[in-house]
Amino acid sequence: MDNGKGMDYDKMHKMLSFGFSDKQTIRGHVPVGLYGNGFKSGSMRLGKDAIVFSKKANTMCVGLLSQTYLEKIKAQDVIVPIVMFTKTRQTISAAPEYAECLRDILTHSLFQTEEELLTEFNVIKRLCSNSSGTRIIIWNLRRTSSGSSEELEFDFMKDPNDIQIRDDANKRQTRKANKRQPGGGMSVPESEYSLRAYCSILYLKPRMQIILRGLKVETQFVTKTLAKVYRDTYKPVGKEGITITFGYNTKSKEHYGLMMYHKNRLIKAYERVACQRKANNTGVGVIGVIECNYLTPTHNKQDFDNSDEYRKTMLSVGAKLEDYWKEVHYRHNTNCTEPFEDTVKTPDQNWVQCDDCMKWRKLPDGIDAKQLPKKWFCHMNSDPQFRSCSDEEEAEDSDGDQPKYQKTYKQQERHQKLLQENRQQSPSTPCSSVPMTPRPSDVTSADTQDTSLSTTPKRKALKWSLENPETKKARKKAFDDQVLLFSHASDATKAEYKDIKTALNDDGDDVIDKCMMKEEQSNKITPTSSKDQQNYKVLYLQSVEEIKQLQHKLKQQLKKEPKEEVDSLKDEKNNLLTSYERLQKDLEEVKRENEKVMFHCKMTNLVFEMKGKGEVLYTVVSWDNSQLQGTGQFQPAGPLYSIKCSEGSVLYLHLPHCEIHTDKNQIELAVAHCSEGNIEILQPLKVTSTHVIIEVQHLSLFGLLKKWIFQETPISAQVLLFYQKMQIRRKLHIHLLPGNVPIEEVQNQHKGNTYIQCSAICQLTPGKKYRPLCEPYVCQPKAETFGCNYGPNYHPTFEVILNTEVEDLTLGLLDEIGQEVWEPRQVFLTGSQEFIFVFP
Ligand SMILES: [Zn+2]
User: If you measure from the C-alpha of residue 356 to the centroid of ligand 1, how many angstroms do you get, rounded to a whole number?
Assistant: First the structure.
């Protein structure tokens, strides 16, 4: 239940209707969570039936999305009964046009009377302060078969205030990306199996109160749970830079990696970056928190689209995480015997959320967040500045956290290098970086204010030509003295001074040259008066002051510039690295094209790309469905192959799929790699219209998977016929199978029977019923649901009993509503084509 704005009839209709998605039509312009397929696929993933109550002002709507109901009424389309109740004065009633829907809801849901339905609206009214909100009830929850018994997919018993994914820890696959510890020893982050833990980190900055099974979820401000926090920035190409917060996990050093958010919502948790996957301990315990609004999440929001931008981000942020790790180790390197990740147990800061206004407040150091009362409110704050709910929230980095930390471990060499470069460059440096010198008194005040550091040389020349020879001479002398005074300054400073001096002497302007000549002449002839001396003194002092300022500025610049420059260079380097990587991939592909040997198995449609010639043995084995439970939302989408050959000889494997891709469906395919009781989900390199291509590292079991979707989508299928001659009777076996089941496998189970070749291909929808057309003969059963059987045992879907020798018959396949899905055709049962397949 939520206490949101509630929905009226139209909105609920949009939410529950299939094939309606605002999100797809104007992708990217609709806020997250607004009537996509999320509710439909999400709720139907959890259970067979769902009912939605929503209250908005005086209208109350109830809608039923129920698979049980659709099965009962034998619906051909998805029907979603929705009833709207309206409150007028004291009575709440539904208009007559909803009568039929109301009857259906009362017959097929958990609620048998109108009063029972209205009670649910009262719950919304009672619990939501604004008296509007939405309440969803899902029942007939999904069950999974483990061994012989069926049990609920989720564990409601283990913790009365939580919903957990069943704990078959040894079966739970450890994701490929997180493989570092030797098998078995690694613990799974709590958020992977506990809904409570997941909800606590679901939002980057939690603003919502979540109550799970009667108990408030203690939300976490993830960036504030870390220790030794530093911030870095990453600048995606053409976008504004974003902040990455790095720090140590203070709860468990075993769970580390990137926490990736999109518009405040968690997409990926503990996603390890390159350096954290290596077989050393680089990056252990380090968490990076990043909000990537510029990336596109996949429709189930568990991943990002694998775009160039995504890969670039991972590469660059990975490099920054490594920097952070090195920096922290550099700084804390003092006689440390214990690994650093073992020493960080408390977060840098303590933040707490007000249970009333939901604002986050920073607690003073030394307060233990664990000692705080369960319910905390702003008025309990010891900081008077933020002691009321009406006070603004404190900025996250208000306390002088460096917005960008200094990578000191690199600074030293950076500095050295820069000094060297400065020395080499100085003689030829244009005078653009030369500051203006003080103007003599006869120059207008507007000009005196111009102390900009980047005046163009031309403008400068013009101004300088206004100086009289005396002042210029004084300025020169003062400058020379100053250089002497600062003769102990660093080389770089001296080099900069030299620049200024060069600029003073060399203006490249005729007027100045003439002035200089005149100056020298007058110097020889005219003795300096005491008034002049006074002037010189003033000028001298001015110059000293200015040069001091100059020196300060230079120092500042030296401090600032290298860091920025190096950062931008680093970004550039990362970009280059990405391009380099891509080029290398292209090159590898070209190489692969040239060197590879492709084997296409005609029987199974498998394709092996091999290093050279070699022997490959493969068989179809049985899927272990209980193993797949741990993988989340995957179901088999093809046979599971056991593949054997000499290690390293197979480079790429193409597995045939039978999905029909259209613009409307987005079927996510992956490949399961099973070894030693573990399942690893491999992301395909490429999905073609017929195959899924993966890179092969170790051989064993491979099988195609697809994301579980509640959407009736046809796949390409095949109708296989086997003719059996018995003593008196004849039988025709009909198999309805997914298109990527090898015929050979089925033939193996029909030894002695004749395989009748025909145009077998058709499109069938898993879960829908089909019946063969074979009149006047009898077929049993009359109709059957098409399921995705991937072997290795294949039982006939239908049998047609033929009492006598029949030469041919007309055979077709109809769907539930009698439409032809496999056109009736003449099938010859006897004749010249007859031969028997025998397989060893
Ligand atoms: Zn408050």
Answer: 5
Rounded Cα distance between 70 and 93, Å, is 26
Could you identify the residue written with the tokens 């400073």?
Answer: 493
Q: What length is written for the chain?
A: 840
User: Domain 715-828 belongs to what architecture?
Assistant: Sandwich (2.60)
Angle between helices 530-595 and 408-425 (to 10 degrees): 120
Q: How many CB atoms lie within 10 A of CB 377?
A: 17
Question: What is the DSSP code string of 53-72?
Answer: EEEETTEEEEEEEEHHHHHH
Q: Give the residue from 733, 700, 699 showing the smallest Cα distance to 719.
A: 733
Preceding amide of 384 cis, omega within 30: no
Q: How many whole angstroms from 171 Cα to the centroid of ligand 1?
A: 44
Q: For residue 105, what is the enclosing H or E element?
A: helix 99-108
Distances (CA, A) of 321 to 177, 403, 572, 664: 16, 16, 17, 39
HEC string for 681-719: EECCCEECCCEEEEECCCCCEEEEEEECCCCCCCEEEEE
For 297, what's the count of Cα atoms within 13 Å in the CB-facing half-sphere?
A: 22
Integer angstrom CA distances of residue 373 from 353, 354, 355, 368, 382:
12, 11, 11, 11, 14
202 Cα: distance to centroid of ligand 1 (angstroms): 21
Burial letters 71-91, b for 16+ CB under 10 A, else e: eeeeeeebebbbbbbeeeeee
Burial class (CB in 10 A: 0-12, 13-18, 19+), 569: exposed
Asked whether 226 and 308 are in contact (CB, 8 A), the reply is no
Structural domain boundaries of the chain?
9-141, 187-348, 409-565, 599-707, 715-828
The SS3 call for residue 87 is strand
**How far is the centre of ligand 1, averaged over its atoms, from the C-alpha of 194 (Å)?**
28
Phi–psi pair at 277, nearest 5 degrees: -100, -10
The pocket of ion ligand 1, defined by CB under 5 A, consists of 354, 356-357, 378, 389
Q: How does DSSP assign 254-292, residue by residue?
A: TS-EEEEEETTEEEEEEE--HHHHSSS-TTTTEEEEEE-
Cα–Cα distance measured from residue 73 to residue 735, given in angstroms and rounded to the nearest whole number: 28
Q: How far is the CA of 357 from the centre of ligand 1 (A)?
A: 4
- What CATH number does the domain located at 187-348 have? 3.30.230
What's the gap between Cα 634 and its chain centre? 18
Per residue in 443-465, is it b (16+ CB within 10 Å) or e — as a string?
A: eeeeeeeeeeeebeeeebbebbb
| Calpha distance 509→511 (Å, rounded) | 6
Full 3-state SS string of 326-344: HHHHHHCCCCCCCCHHHCC
Tokens of 805: 């020798």
**Distance from C-alpha of 734 to C-alpha of 829, rounded to nearest angstrom:** 13
**Distance from residue 195's CA to the centre of ligand 1 (Å):** 26
Mean pLDDT on 571-591: 77
| CB-based contact 465:511 (threshold 8 Å) | yes
- Amino acid, res. 290: I
pLDDT band at 454 (very low <50, low <70, confident <90, very high): very low
> Which amino acid is present at 510?
D
Q: What is the arithmetic mean of pLDDT over 88-95?
A: 81
Q: Which residues contact 11 (CB under 8 A, 6 or more apart)?
A: 35, 54
User: What confidence category does residue 593 fall into, taking pLDDT thresholds of 50, 70 and 90?
Assistant: low
How far does residue 248's CA lie from ligand 1's centre (Å)?
29
- As a whole number of angstroms, the distance between CA 220 and CA 351 comes to 9
pLDDT in tens, 757-790: 888 889 999 888 999 988 778 888 889 999 888 8
45 alpha carbon – ligand 1 mean position (Å):
37
> Among residues of the chain, what percentage have pLDDT more than 90?
20
Helix (H, G, I), strand (E, B) or coil at 20: coil
